[in-house]
Amino acid sequence: GGGGGGGGGGGGSGGGGLVEGIYCGSVSCYELLGVERTATRAEIARAYRRLARRDHPDRSGSSGGSERFVTLATAYETLRDAAVRAAYDATLDGPAGRPLRHLYDYDYANTNTYTYNYTYTYNYYYTYTYNYARSLLLLRRAPVDARAVLAGAVIVVSVIQYMSWWARYQRAICHLATVPRFRLRAEDIARREGLLGVPPRGGARGGARGGGRSRHEEQEEIIRGVIRSHVDIQGGYRKPRVTDVLLVRLLLLPYSLLRFSAFHLRWLWLFTVLGRELGPTERLHLTRHSLRLSVEEFRSMSDEQRERLVQLALWEKRNMEEFRRQQQEEERVRLAQDSRWKRFRRSQRSDGAGRMTFSDD
């Protein structure tokens, strides 16, 4: 093979030591594309496009044009990927970063030189084969788009969110169907609307047991349907909305930020700068904020409860402290009148705070 070019700064890496069938064969990939080893990715791409147009089999018409075109494509695939190019450059540099030399130019008269060259030859071809196998793995690795992974994760989380919320809402409906107050009301509405009292589908006597079970299931479904349409469940068990899932909230994030900014700018201008009197909507907002309740928790209250809290003007510190004190006093009175709390206090006085008792009372 020719002289040692791998360590030089030029495009030529010399044919010495390069192996046919691996990378670009006995010719350096840089030489094939006519670029320096310091060439950028854009320069490599321009050189490949220029040579590919010239040596394309449909345009060259020569018998060797197809093989040369494939070799050019191999050189481009090797040098365009940063990781594969680094492995190829390490191969050209030889083991331990030493430049490529004439591997078979031994000095048989000097045993030390012969041993050194033999070891160097073995290390070089071992490194060459290892880097080539590593390059194949890098070229065949599946490209991963982080945006696609993130979008898939958001979609999966959103589906799980909606399904869990719907299951929780269905459990709440089934529970309300067992509460006598809601069940009797739902049965009364269903009878007025003609949904109950329909004879079985299978005739008067046919399939008594199976028909009875089927009719019972139909009645239960009718009652649950009436409850769904007439009972407004709030809080954590309310009917799920698509706008609450993560995917839709992210899509609506710019709009939400715009509304948030507009609300606070309006508040700052009207009530801080101009000093206008608070309206009903603003009083409700301040009351909810003072109680540290979420929107759903505040909506779950009755209109009378919300109006009573607004009348207390809890956004003022003095009123809020008085409200907290009254709440604590009411809780103390309630516990004092609770029979279970009385039994617990008696057990604490008689048995001590740290003892466990198994008495019935």
If you had to describe this structure to a student in words, what would you say it looks like?
This is DnaJ homolog subfamily C member 25. It is a multi-pass membrane protein. It is found in: Membrane. Belongs to the DNAJC25 family. Keywords: Chaperone, Membrane, Transmembrane, Transmembrane helix. By secondary structure, this protein is mainly α. Among the domains are: 112 residues, DnaJ domain (Helix Hairpins), CATH 1.10.287; 84 residues, no CATH class. Helices cover 65% and strands 0% of the residues. It contains 16 helices and no strands. α4 crosses α5 and α5 runs antiparallel to α6. The longest helix is centred in the middle third of the chain and has 31 residues. It is elongated and about 100 Å long. The termini are far apart. The relative contact order is 0.05. The N terminus and C terminus are likely disordered.
How big a fraction of the residues is strand? Answer: under 5%
CATH class of the domain at 29-140: Mainly Alpha
Multimer state? single chain
What is the distance, rounded to the nearest whole angstrom, between the alpha carbons of the first and last residues?
102 Å
**What's the CATH topology name of the domain at 29-140?**
Helix Hairpins
Shape type: elongated
User: What structural class should be given to the helix and strand makeup?
Assistant: mainly alpha
Count of DSSP H/I helices: 16
The residue-averaged pLDDT reads: 74
Give me the CATH architecture of the domain at 29-140, please: Orthogonal Bundle
Low-confidence spans: pLDDT under 50, at least 5 residues? 1-17, 96-122, 199-210, 353-361
Give the biggest beta sheet.
none
Roughly how much helix do the residues carry, as a percent range?
55-70%
Number of strands: 0
SSE succession:
HHHHHHHHHHHHHHHH
Please identify which CATH superfamily of the domain at 29-140 we are dealing with. Answer: DnaJ domain
Keywords: Chaperone, Membrane, Transmembrane, Transmembrane helix
Subcellular location: Membrane
Main location: membrane
Protein name: DnaJ homolog subfamily C member 25
